[in-house]
């Protein structure tokens, strides 16, 4: 049995390397080498070397139905269906992967940069709302100012249109990113801790509370975990803000994303 297993592994490895070589060769011919390399590194293990899917993930043929900004969000933030977020690989690598995925799905023409979204709101009013009434800066950084328990929004609007940004504000939990869910943990001594669930496994829970502190808890020290099904993002902005104010915030985010401060590195 051991010899047979070794033979099967050798055959599987040979097939994978052959597929990788074929993908790399095609990528070199089409000028998509960086995207192909990143795809093989981060995506092929689940979606297959040819992007046709497998036991772990579906085919990527449906990518043609999504806009560039939608695909970027899916890769960056992950999905509720089980795909993990890949924000850690950086914007450049995500963009390279998406260009290659477009080629695999036969929609390479859509890799061209979309037109910059129109700005129709009051930028100064949006800035005042962001750092004031709307309380966005309590959790989000913007050019180094604000909280850090939620996503850095400095470059957020570079890959999203005005409508997508508005929807993210109005429906913040659609989809809910697993690493952004708020949970309430009760310990053996009756202490309750409310925070963002950053990671969990069979033995531990890692929470981050709104003060920025991380709490690593052993499962054996926990009696209950209540999953709220939502993030820290308020879900009542439609009532708290007028449509004009929402438009002002969206416009502010778009303009700020286009104008990084001198010497400021691009967020990865």
Description:
There is one protein chain. This protein is an alpha+beta fold and 268 residues long. It has three domains: 2-111, Cytochrome c-like domain (Cytochrome Bc1 Complex, Chain D, domain 2); 123-174 and 237-258, Orthogonal Bundle (Cytochrome Bc1 Complex, Chain D, domain 2); 182-227, Roll (SH3 type barrels), CATH 2.30.30.100. It contains nine helices and seven strands. The chain has helices spanning 2-30, 33-42, 44-47, 68-77, 91-104, 123-131, 162-170, 237-240, 243-258; strands at residues 141-142, 145-146, 182-187, 192-200, 204-208, 214-218, 222-227. Residues 8-31 and 108-113 have low confidence and may be disordered.
Relevant terms:
Cytochrome Bc1 Complex, Chain D, domain 2; five-stranded antiparallel beta sheet; flat; alpha+beta; single chain; 3 domains; two-stranded antiparallel ribbon; 7 strands; SH3 type barrels; 268 residues
